[in-house]
Specification:
The protein is built from five helices and eight strands, in the order αβαβαβαβαββββ. With 177 residues, the chain is of the alpha/beta class. The protein has a single domain (26-174), classed as 3-Layer(aba) Sandwich (Rossmann fold). The chain has an eight-stranded mixed beta sheet with strand order 3-2-1-4-5-8-7-6. Helix 2 (54-61) links the parallel strand 1 (44-48) and strand 2 (66-71). The longest helix has 14 residues, at 74-87. The radius of gyration is 15 Å and the shape is globular. The N and C termini lie far apart (41 Å).
Protein backbone atom coordinates (compact mmCIF):
# COMPACT_ATOMS: atom_id res chain seq x y z
CA UNK A 1 0.00 0.00 0.00
CA UNK A 2 1.26 3.47 -0.85
CA UNK A 3 0.30 7.13 -0.81
CA UNK A 4 -1.09 7.98 -4.27
CA UNK A 5 -0.39 11.73 -4.61
CA UNK A 6 0.46 14.94 -2.84
CA UNK A 7 3.27 15.73 -0.43
CA UNK A 8 3.98 12.06 0.39
CA UNK A 9 3.41 10.60 -3.06
CA UNK A 10 4.73 7.04 -3.55
CA UNK A 11 5.65 6.60 0.12
CA UNK A 12 4.92 3.08 1.34
CA UNK A 13 2.56 2.49 4.24
CA UNK A 14 2.64 -0.35 6.72
CA UNK A 15 -0.29 -2.71 6.34
CA UNK A 16 -1.66 -5.46 8.52
CA UNK A 17 -2.76 -8.91 7.43
CA UNK A 18 -6.23 -9.27 8.90
CA UNK A 19 -9.86 -9.76 8.06
CA UNK A 20 -10.56 -7.08 10.71
CA UNK A 21 -9.85 -4.36 8.14
CA UNK A 22 -10.90 -3.83 4.54
CA UNK A 23 -8.18 -1.88 2.69
CA UNK A 24 -9.37 0.70 0.19
CA UNK A 25 -7.68 -0.19 -3.11
CA UNK A 26 -5.19 2.35 -4.50
CA UNK A 27 -7.29 2.93 -7.61
CA UNK A 28 -10.43 3.62 -5.56
CA UNK A 29 -8.53 6.03 -3.27
CA UNK A 30 -7.27 7.84 -6.36
CA UNK A 31 -10.82 8.11 -7.71
CA UNK A 32 -12.09 9.37 -4.35
CA UNK A 33 -9.50 12.13 -4.09
CA UNK A 34 -9.85 13.10 -7.74
CA UNK A 35 -13.53 13.74 -6.97
CA UNK A 36 -12.80 15.60 -3.73
CA UNK A 37 -10.21 17.74 -5.55
CA UNK A 38 -9.76 21.18 -4.03
CA UNK A 39 -12.31 20.49 -1.23
CA UNK A 40 -9.62 18.59 0.65
CA UNK A 41 -7.16 21.49 1.01
CA UNK A 42 -7.43 22.94 4.51
CA UNK A 43 -10.29 20.62 5.47
CA UNK A 44 -10.67 18.54 8.61
CA UNK A 45 -11.02 14.92 7.51
CA UNK A 46 -12.32 11.96 9.50
CA UNK A 47 -11.34 8.41 8.56
CA UNK A 48 -13.80 6.12 10.39
CA UNK A 49 -12.87 2.44 10.55
CA UNK A 50 -9.43 3.70 9.53
CA UNK A 51 -7.62 0.35 9.26
CA UNK A 52 -4.02 1.29 8.45
CA UNK A 53 -4.97 4.94 7.96
CA UNK A 54 -4.28 4.98 4.21
CA UNK A 55 -7.34 7.12 3.32
CA UNK A 56 -6.75 9.66 6.09
CA UNK A 57 -3.04 9.84 5.29
CA UNK A 58 -3.91 10.40 1.63
CA UNK A 59 -6.08 13.33 2.77
CA UNK A 60 -3.17 14.79 4.75
CA UNK A 61 -0.81 14.27 1.82
CA UNK A 62 -3.21 16.21 -0.40
CA UNK A 63 -3.50 19.16 1.97
CA UNK A 64 -6.07 18.39 4.67
CA UNK A 65 -5.34 20.47 7.76
CA UNK A 66 -6.11 17.67 10.21
CA UNK A 67 -7.35 14.08 10.15
CA UNK A 68 -9.10 12.05 12.84
CA UNK A 69 -8.48 8.30 12.62
CA UNK A 70 -11.17 6.20 14.36
CA UNK A 71 -10.29 2.54 14.84
CA UNK A 72 -10.89 -0.21 17.39
CA UNK A 73 -8.44 -2.92 16.25
CA UNK A 74 -5.17 -2.79 18.22
CA UNK A 75 -2.95 -3.96 15.36
CA UNK A 76 -4.53 -1.37 13.05
CA UNK A 77 -4.07 1.39 15.66
CA UNK A 78 -0.38 0.53 15.90
CA UNK A 79 -0.06 0.55 12.09
CA UNK A 80 -1.73 3.99 11.92
CA UNK A 81 0.62 5.38 14.56
CA UNK A 82 3.67 3.92 12.79
CA UNK A 83 2.53 5.25 9.40
CA UNK A 84 1.95 8.74 10.83
CA UNK A 85 5.33 8.72 12.59
CA UNK A 86 7.19 7.55 9.46
CA UNK A 87 5.78 10.56 7.59
CA UNK A 88 6.11 13.04 10.46
CA UNK A 89 2.35 13.66 10.54
CA UNK A 90 1.60 13.21 14.25
CA UNK A 91 0.89 16.94 14.79
CA UNK A 92 -1.79 16.96 12.07
CA UNK A 93 -3.52 13.78 13.21
CA UNK A 94 -5.59 12.49 16.10
CA UNK A 95 -5.85 8.73 16.57
CA UNK A 96 -8.97 7.72 18.49
CA UNK A 97 -9.23 4.17 19.83
CA UNK A 98 -12.61 2.54 20.26
CA UNK A 99 -15.77 1.55 18.42
CA UNK A 100 -16.87 4.09 15.80
CA UNK A 101 -20.43 4.21 17.16
CA UNK A 102 -18.97 5.44 20.48
CA UNK A 103 -16.14 7.69 19.26
CA UNK A 104 -17.77 9.33 16.21
CA UNK A 105 -20.15 11.67 18.08
CA UNK A 106 -17.18 13.21 19.93
CA UNK A 107 -15.43 14.31 16.71
CA UNK A 108 -16.40 16.81 14.05
CA UNK A 109 -14.95 17.09 10.58
CA UNK A 110 -15.71 18.75 7.24
CA UNK A 111 -15.41 15.46 5.35
CA UNK A 112 -16.15 12.04 6.83
CA UNK A 113 -15.08 8.79 5.16
CA UNK A 114 -16.65 5.50 6.28
CA UNK A 115 -15.46 2.04 5.33
CA UNK A 116 -16.45 -0.54 7.96
CA UNK A 117 -14.71 -3.92 7.84
CA UNK A 118 -16.79 -6.85 6.65
CA UNK A 119 -17.87 -7.92 10.14
CA UNK A 120 -19.27 -4.43 10.89
CA UNK A 121 -21.23 -3.79 7.69
CA UNK A 122 -24.42 -3.80 9.79
CA UNK A 123 -23.28 -0.44 11.23
CA UNK A 124 -23.77 1.59 8.01
CA UNK A 125 -27.30 2.73 8.92
CA UNK A 126 -26.40 3.48 12.56
CA UNK A 127 -23.39 5.58 11.59
CA UNK A 128 -25.38 7.55 9.01
CA UNK A 129 -28.02 8.20 11.71
CA UNK A 130 -25.30 9.52 14.04
CA UNK A 131 -23.89 11.76 11.32
CA UNK A 132 -27.37 13.12 10.54
CA UNK A 133 -27.52 14.57 14.08
CA UNK A 134 -24.60 16.94 13.39
CA UNK A 135 -23.89 16.51 9.68
CA UNK A 136 -20.52 17.21 8.12
CA UNK A 137 -20.34 19.08 4.82
CA UNK A 138 -19.71 15.76 3.06
CA UNK A 139 -19.89 12.08 4.00
CA UNK A 140 -18.40 9.44 1.73
CA UNK A 141 -19.27 5.79 2.32
CA UNK A 142 -17.32 2.95 0.72
CA UNK A 143 -19.37 -0.24 0.38
CA UNK A 144 -19.85 -3.31 -1.74
CA UNK A 145 -21.93 -2.94 -4.89
CA UNK A 146 -24.16 -5.62 -3.32
CA UNK A 147 -24.73 -3.50 -0.17
CA UNK A 148 -27.83 -1.33 -0.53
CA UNK A 149 -27.73 1.96 1.35
CA UNK A 150 -30.59 4.39 1.81
CA UNK A 151 -30.70 7.39 -0.51
CA UNK A 152 -31.86 9.56 2.40
CA UNK A 153 -31.09 9.38 6.11
CA UNK A 154 -32.91 12.25 7.83
CA UNK A 155 -31.00 15.37 6.62
CA UNK A 156 -28.37 13.37 4.72
CA UNK A 157 -29.13 12.85 1.05
CA UNK A 158 -27.08 10.76 -1.35
CA UNK A 159 -25.86 13.09 -4.10
CA UNK A 160 -23.55 10.83 -6.07
CA UNK A 161 -22.66 7.15 -6.57
CA UNK A 162 -19.39 5.96 -8.09
CA UNK A 163 -18.91 2.25 -8.81
CA UNK A 164 -15.53 0.67 -9.38
CA UNK A 165 -15.27 -3.11 -9.55
CA UNK A 166 -16.88 -4.57 -6.41
CA UNK A 167 -16.71 -1.21 -4.59
CA UNK A 168 -19.09 1.71 -4.49
CA UNK A 169 -18.55 5.21 -3.13
CA UNK A 170 -21.76 6.89 -1.98
CA UNK A 171 -21.56 10.64 -1.36
CA UNK A 172 -23.97 12.21 1.14
CA UNK A 173 -24.55 15.89 1.86
CA UNK A 174 -26.84 17.60 4.35
CA UNK A 175 -29.99 19.16 2.93
CA UNK A 176 -32.55 21.47 4.48
CA UNK A 177 -35.69 19.76 5.70
Amino acid sequence: MRVIAGEFRSRRLKSIPSAATRPTPDRLRETLFDILGPRIAGATFLDAYAGTGAVGIEALSRGAAHTFFLERNRAALEAIRQNLASLGLEARATVVAGPVLVTLPKQHADIVFLDPPYDLEREYASVLELLAENPPALTVVQHSVRQALADVCRVLRRTRIVKQGDNTLSFYAATAL
